[in-house]
Amino acid sequence: MIGSCSIDLTVQSDRRPLAGETVIGRSLTLSPGGKGANQAVAAARLGAQVNMVGCVGDDDYGRQIISNLKDNGVDTSYVQTISEQSSGTAHITLAEGDNSIIVIKGANDSVSKSVVDEAGPALESADIVLLQLEIPLPAVVYTIELCRRLNVPVLLNPAPVSPIREEVLHHVTYLTPNQHEAALLFTSGVDQALKKYPNQLLVTKGSQGVRFFDGKEIRNIAAFQTAAVDTTGAGDTFNGAFAVAVSEGKPIHDSILFANAAAALSVRKLGAQSGMPDREQVESLLKEHQNTDIG
Ligand code: RIB
Ligand 1: which residue has its CA nearest to atom 7? Predict the structure, then answer.
């Protein structure tokens, strides 16, 4: 995992303030987050051996981030502590059934080519490398090219979205934008893009499932319906779980199903990581689903 590690500061409120307005909120929660760390924890809880590559500040948040990764079984040997930088934070408002997030990158902005190079031994032996866009784009592009040379599969979750050259996208094994990110990345049409990237481009649509092109037709793998307490980190859970499943050799359809089950379970608790399931929980939901299907 090469990506961001942050602390999430989540405010729950009955509604969002309008521009220039002040509203009284209900609660403030501090919890571990950052798309990179979230995906690392999601994969580790499902039994993967995960190395986190990233940067934190030399502060209390940085120490909390590292200790949380360790508690979840993630190897933090390649997480660097940057002096004179604050750890990354995400400022989340949970209101009206959805979240809105402002990210302050802090030390995540220090993830550079040399930070990636330090992790060379882990990269060379990886079954898959995961990336998102909360770290500088040059480090992301560099990693994609490096993995290509090393013949290591790469999953890029282009969130938050920023323009990426098409030739770079072609070198990614799996690209997992949500529907909004896909619309911004592929301005000439998402369905057209799906056909251009068979079994490679997976467009996640929250409770509406995941779309991909299997080489013959565009397929939609339905999401598992569940009552959501907090959808923050559901996409990260999907990415971590998909990477685990596909690296274990599961076909793409089954990997999406596995990841959809993990993502559905993850939204039942407050906080990006608190609801992330272990393997037993995912397998039991899949079994339930199979039985319902047969019944
Ligand atoms: O994807 C959810 C994550 O995005 C949050 O945990 C927050 O840290 C933001 O980066």
Answer: 34
Asked if 190 and 210 touch (Cβ cutoff 8 Å), the reply is no
pTM over 0.90: yes
CB 294, CB 277: distance < 8 Å = no
All domains in the chain, ordered by first residue = 35-86+107-288 (3.40.1190.20)
Q: In what order do the strands lie in the sheet with 129-132?
A: 129-132, 154-157, 174-175
Count of C-beta atoms within a 10 Å radius of residue 86: 17
What is the DSSP code string of 243-283?
Answer: HHHHHTT--HHHHHHHHHHHHHHHTTSSSTTTT---HHHHH
Ligand 1 pocket, 88 CB below 6 A?
no
The reply to whether ligand 1 has any atom less than 6 angstroms from the CB of 236 is: yes
Reading the chain (295 residues) residue by residue, the pLDDT tens digits are 999 999 999 999 999 999 999 999 999 999 999 999 999 999 999 999 999 999 999 999 999 999 999 999 999 999 999 999 999 999 999 999 889 999 999 999 999 999 999 999 999 999 999 999 999 999 999 999 999 999 999 999 999 999 999 999 999 999 999 999 999 999 999 999 999 999 999 999 999 999 999 999 999 999 999 999 999 999 999 999 999 999 999 999 999 999 999 999 999 999 999 999 999 999 999 999 887 654 3
Question: Atom 8 of ligand 1 has which residue's CA nearest to it?
Answer: 34
